[in-house]
Amino acid sequence: MVWLKQCHCAEMGSKRDLSGSITTPDVKLNLGGEFIKESTATTFLRQRGYGWLLEVEDDDPEDNKPLLEELDIDLKDIYYKIRCVLMPMPSLGFNRQVVRDNPDFWGPLAVVLFFSMISLYGQFKVVSWIITIWIFGSLTIFLLARVLGGEVAYGQVLGVIGYSLLPLIVIAPVLLVVGSFEVVSTLIKLFGVFWAAYSAASLLVGEEFKTKKPLLIYPIFLLYIYFLSLYTGV
């Protein structure tokens, strides 16, 4: 009897030792110094070799640049070039060569588009025509300058010709006021064309042309006369 009781007690003890509970281990991720409990689905994917689906790429600081910087638009630089074109006198102290030596595309394009919008009193069909004249007229000036021995790039000519339309934009509202006075209107038109041509020629026609300057100044002058004719419709 004593032996049976000992066996029974031993069986009960063994049963107690085998009892327990099965729990899933807590898997934690260290993200930025903070431990976050991983879900069952995440653990399942990692165990099956699909953990790469859960990876998140870090944001690249270079991808968060402002829009103007992405498009390479410097508003301060454009404003300075506008002042250089509108005030071409050397005595004013502007470094006007920056318009030629540091050309950009968006500033001249904005000037040309604005001139197109005001041309022919809002007839927007001339916009494409003015842009075409700007591109191919600048190309003609560039080719002529290279033939004459000038060291100038097409981008420089394109920028200078585009920015130098600003004087014609300035005289546009004046022509609306004095349009009924033919003599005054003609004088203002001539002033605007000379102003624009002088701004462009003083930047493009350097000392390397020497005695050949008139051969380049004359087509520049004719180009701005043509631009003005697109505005006035004559």
UniProtKB/TrEMBL annotation:
<feature type="transmembrane region" description="Helical">
    <location>
        <begin position="215"/>
        <end position="233"/>
    </location>
</feature>
<dbReference type="InterPro" id="IPR006977">
    <property type="entry name" value="Yip1_dom"/>
</dbReference>
<comment type="similarity">
    <text>Belongs to the YIP1 family.</text>
</comment>
<feature type="transmembrane region" description="Helical">
    <location>
        <begin position="105"/>
        <end position="122"/>
    </location>
</feature>
<dbReference type="GO" id="GO:0005802">
    <property type="term" value="C:trans-Golgi network"/>
</dbReference>
<feature type="domain" description="Yip1">
    <location>
        <begin position="94"/>
        <end position="229"/>
    </location>
</feature>
<keyword id="KW-0472">Membrane</keyword>
<feature type="transmembrane region" description="Helical">
    <location>
        <begin position="187"/>
        <end position="206"/>
    </location>
</feature>
<keyword id="KW-1133">Transmembrane helix</keyword>
<dbReference type="InterPro" id="IPR045231">
    <property type="entry name" value="Yip1/4-like"/>
</dbReference>
<comment type="function">
    <text>Involved in the maintenance of the Golgi structure.</text>
</comment>
<dbReference type="GO" id="GO:0000139">
    <property type="term" value="C:Golgi membrane"/>
</dbReference>
<protein>
    <recommendedName>
        <fullName>Protein YIPF</fullName>
    </recommendedName>
</protein>
<keyword id="KW-0333">Golgi apparatus</keyword>
<dbReference type="GO" id="GO:0006888">
    <property type="term" value="P:endoplasmic reticulum to Golgi vesicle-mediated transport"/>
</dbReference>
<keyword id="KW-0812">Transmembrane</keyword>
<feature type="transmembrane region" description="Helical">
    <location>
        <begin position="160"/>
        <end position="181"/>
    </location>
</feature>
<dbReference type="GO" id="GO:0048280">
    <property type="term" value="P:vesicle fusion with Golgi apparatus"/>
</dbReference>
<feature type="transmembrane region" description="Helical">
    <location>
        <begin position="128"/>
        <end position="148"/>
    </location>
</feature>
<dbReference type="Pfam" id="PF04893">
    <property type="entry name" value="Yip1"/>
</dbReference>
